[in-house]
Amino acid sequence: EMKKNPMLFLQIMARLVQLDPAYKLHIAGDFNDVRVYRYLRHLIGRMGLEKHIVFHGFVADMPQWLRDKGVLLSTTLYESFGMNIGEAMAAGAHPVIHHFPGADKIWPEECLFTTIEMAVEQIRAAVPNRYREFVRTRYDIDRQLRAIDALLDTENSKHRDILHFDAAGKTIKLHLPDRSDHIQRSIALTNNFYECGMLHDMRERAKLLQGAASTIPVAIDVGANIGNHTIFLATQTDMPVIALEPAAGSFAVLDRNIALNELQDKVTAINKGAGAQPARAQLQIRDPHNWGMNRLDLDDTGDIPVITLDSMIGERPVALMKIDVEGMELDVLRGATQILTRDRPLLYIEASDDAQRQLIDSFLVAFGYHRQARFNDTPTYLYLNQQTHAHQLSDMSDNATARQGQGAETARSRRRHRRQRNKTGPLSARS
Questions:
Q1: How far is CA 162 from the centre of its chain?
Q2: Interacting residues of 58 by C-beta distance below 8 A, sequence separation 6+
Q3: Eight-class DSSP state of 263
Q4: Confidence of residue 173 (pLDDT cuts 50, 70, 90)
Q5: Can you say whether the dihedral through the CA atoms of 29, 30, 34, 37 is positive or negative?
Q6: For residue 186, which of 156, 165, 201 has the smallest C-alpha distance?
C-alpha cells in the first residue's frame, strides 16, 4: 500500500478541510500490511482528520460505490495503467491524479498535479461526469479488445507468410507473401525449394568445382526473384552468392529471405538488371500471378538501372551463373564475356523456346561451351565448358540424365497439383 503514497493524500485532505470542513475522503479496499493501516490511523489522529476520512474495507461493487463520489483522488507513486482511475472516471468521478511517470501518456494533462496546491485547486474546481466520454472513447473494453485483435493480426501476419522446412539438415525460412504467385505457391505446396532437380545438380557440380579451387569462387543468380535459388546456393554450398533482381517487390522479398536465414554476410543482393551494356529499363508485369514472368524493356527514361556482370564482378572468380531473365538471357551473356573467357563458370540458362536456345547455343560455342542437360517446366539448360568441365561431362552424365527425369516428374507433379488446386481451392502449409 505504500505505493499509494498515503502521506500525500493526508496532506491534501488537511488543506481541503482547512478551506471547507465538509470535505470527506472515502477509502475502499483492505490493507494487506497492518503497519500501513496503523501508520494512517496514527497520522489521522495527529492531524485531526478522524471525521473526514472513512475506511470502507473491501468493496464488491465498485461502480455502485463510486456513483456518489464526485472526485477520484489518486496519489500513487507509479502505475502501469491505473484501472481504479479509469473505473472512477467511467462512473462519473472527476480525476485528480498525482503525476506519476507515464501518467501524461494515459490521462488528460489537466487532471495531473505535482503539488498539494495544484491538487486542492483541481478538486475544488472538479466537474463530475466531464471525463466519462474520455474513458469510453479510449478505454472501453470492446474497443480495447478490437485493438488487441488488430495488433495480434498484424504480428501474426508477419509470421503467417513464413514457411519453415528442412533441407539437408538445415532449417530454411522463406517469406511467401503472395500464395497466388506460381513459384511461391509451388514452394508452399511441396514444403520445399522450387525446381529441386536443377538445384540438386547445381549443388553436386559445385562440390566438384570447390574441391579443385584454391579460393572459394562466387555464384551469380541473375533474375533472383524471391531468392529460391539464391537461398539454396547460400545454404547448401560454400559459395558466396551475388543476387540481381530488378523488380522492387520481388527484391523486397528476396532481401527479407536473406535476413530470415541470416545470410547477410554470404549473399549480396543488388536491385538492378543485367544486360549487354549499362542502360535504363522499365519493368513489364506480364502476369500478376507469376512474378517470375516479369521482364525488363530497355528504355532511356526507365527507373531501373541495368549493369553488366563484367563491370560488377571485377576480379572475383565466378564458378556458377544462373540466368532467368525472360528473354534477355543473350544480353546478359554479352555483358559477361570476360567472366566466360576467364572463369568459364557452370551456366544454367532459361530459354523459353527453340529459337532463343539456338541463339544461346551459337553464342556460347565460341567460348567452348556445349549444352549438356535440360531441367524444369520452362526449359533451363546446363552449359559446360569443354576445357574446365571435361571431367564432369563423363563423371556426371548418367546422373544428369536421371535428374532430367526427376525434373520432368517434378513438372508433372506441379501440373497435377495445379489440377488439384482448381478442384479444392487454396491450400496452406505449416508456417
A1: 9
A2: 28, 29, 30
A3: -
A4: very high
A5: positive
A6: 165
Cell of 400: 544428369
Rg over alpha carbons for the chain, rounded to the nearest Å, is: 36
Residue carrying C-alpha cell 494515459: 106
User: Measured between alpha carbons, how far is 43 from 331 in angstroms, rounded to an integer?
Assistant: 90
- DSSP string covering 214-253: SSPPEEEEES-TTSHHHHHHHHHSS--EEEE---HHHHHH
Q: Dihedral, CA atoms, 410, 415, 419, 420, nearest 10 degrees?
A: 10
Question: What does the alpha-carbon distance between residue 304 and residue 280 come to, in Å, rounded to a whole number?
Answer: 6
Q: 255-290 pLDDT, tens per residue? A: 999 999 999 999 999 999 999 999 999 888 767 766
d(CA 356, CA 379): 11
Say how far apart CA 61 and CA 84 lie, in whole Å: 12
Give CA–CA dist 273/245, Å, rounded. 6
The per-residue pLDDT for range 320-357, each reduced to its tens digit, is 999 999 889 999 999 999 999 999 999 999 998 999 99
What distance in Å separates the CA atoms of residue 116 and residue 196, rounded to the nearest whole number? 74
| CA-CA-CA-CA torsion sign (318, 321, 325, 330) | positive
Output the nine-digit C-alpha cell for 130.
466531464
Question: What is the share, in percent, of the chain residues with pLDDT greater than 70?
Answer: 85
Question: Right CATH number for 2-139 from 3.20.20.70, 3.40.50.2000, 3.40.50.10730, 3.40.50.150?
Answer: 3.40.50.2000
Intrachain domains 2-139 and 158-424 with the same fold: yes
* Domain covering 158-424 assigned CATH 1.25.40.20 in the classification: no
Which ranges constitute the DSSP H helices of 246-383?
248-260, 309-313, 329-334, 337-342, 354-365
Amino acid residing at 306: V
Q: What is the pLDDT of residues 108-144, one digit of tens each?
A: 999 999 999 999 999 999 999 999 999 888 888 787 7
Listed residue (136, 42, 139, 34) closest to 83, CA to CA: 139
Domain residue ranges of the chain, discontinuous segments joined by +? 2-139, 158-424
